[in-house]
Specification:
Elements: H1 4-8, H2 11-23, H3 42-62, H4 70-96, H5 134-156, H6 175-198, H7 214-217, H8 230-289, H9 295-298, H10 306-326
Helix pairs in contact: 3-4
Biased composition (Low complexity): 210-219
Organism: Suillus plorans
Protein name: Isy1-like splicing factor
């Protein structure tokens, strides 16, 4: 019987080995690791990723075969999704080892610029999109998107409308106001006549005018080039006079506030000086009974000002920088 070395040199053995390498099977000692994190070589990670891509290409070509049954199509689609997950793990490992970033999260779009359903999570390839249940899934998503687009297009024509759409310019030319005034006078005469008939009053008396307020009796909208109504000009004049009076009152209040602040500052200074003198007198009296303490020892501690604290902190910072760059 031939030895193993001789078997390895045979033509059939080398053909089988090349065929297994082409199919991505490899030998038992040269199989792809199950855990991508176990591979610490960037070159090996690139190699295994390329092998997965070749397997994906073969599987995607296989799933287009019309002779496959629905069960075989589902199995092939599951294998493709499994290889996609494994490829993502190897790409993460390549990034962790300092390699290129192959993960491009680019959304797949259709002709209308909308994202294609089934591009996230579990994906369907080739004939898997025509399987029972999957076809309805894609159709339902497409139908929902069409309904949303129709509703948006229906309400879009009502958005961004000008003031004329809401009727804000109906009274600009004065025709509507004139028509309303005429209809109002006609209704007033009819109702007045009806009331006099109900009360058995004579109908020969003249019909009085409609009692209108000051705003109603004024002209509806003055044409361009004419002055506004008298009551509007009077209102504006009164508002201007009130603004002048309020400005004067505010100025006087500010002056009084500044004067009160200055008086309070002076009083605070005087009270602080008086308090310091009383504290020193008490300290001197207490030091007379305690011979080993001086009045200065019994005085309350003097707190540093803000400027003194900033100076101390600045000096400490300078000293730390000098020690860091020049040493002790």
């Amino acid at each position: 019987m031939a030895r193993n070395e001789e078997k390895a040199q045979s033509m059939l053995y080398r053909f089988r080995e090349a065929q297994a390498a082409e199919l991505g099977l490899g030998t038992r000692a040269d199989r792809r690791p199950k855990m991508a994190s176990a591979c610490k070589s960037l070159r090996e990670c690139e190699r295994w990723r390329g092998e997965i891509l070749r397997e994906l290409s073969r599987k995607v070509s296989k799933i287009q075969d019309a002779g496959l049954t629905d069960y075989e199509v589902r199995d092939v689609n599951d294998e493709i999704n499994k290889l996609m997950r494994e490829k993502r793990h190897w790409e993460n490992q390549i990034i962790a080892l300092g390699g290129a970033n192959y993960r491009r999260n680019v959304a797949m779009l259709d002709d209308d610029g909308k994202e294609v359903p089934g591009t996230k999570g579990y994906k369907y390839f080739g004939r898997a999109k025509d399987l029972p249940g999957v076809r309805e899934l894609f159709q339902s998503k497409k139908k929902e998107e069409e309904e949303e687009s129709e509703a948006l297009s229906f309400y879009k024509k009502f958005t961004n409308q000008g003031p004329a759409y809401f009727g804000d310019l109906d009274e600009a030319d004065g025709k509507l106001l004139g028509y309303e005034r005429q209809a109002e006078e006609t209704e007033w005469r009819d109702e007045y006549t009806n009331v006099r008939e109900i009360l058995d009053l004579p109908l020969d008396d003249p019909i009085p005018e409609i009692p209108r307020g000051s705003l109603a009796s004024s002209s509806p909208l003055p044409p361009n080039g004419l002055s506004p109504p008298q009551h509007l000009s009077n209102t504006k004049r009164k508002a201007q006079e009130e603004d002048v009076e309020m400005d004067a009152a505010n100025t006087e209040a500010e002056k009084r506030l500044r004067k009160a602040e200055s008086d309070n500052t002076t009083k605070a200074d005087v009270s602080s000086h008086g308090g310091a003198d009383s504290i020193r007198a008490h300290a001197t009296t207490a030091a007379a009974y305690l011979g080993f303490l001086s009045p200065e020892d019994l005085m309350p501690p003097t707190l540093p000002t803000r400027e003194e604290m900033e100076g101390v902190l600045l000096a400490l910072r300078k000293q730390a920088l000098v020690e860091e760059y020049f040493g002790e």
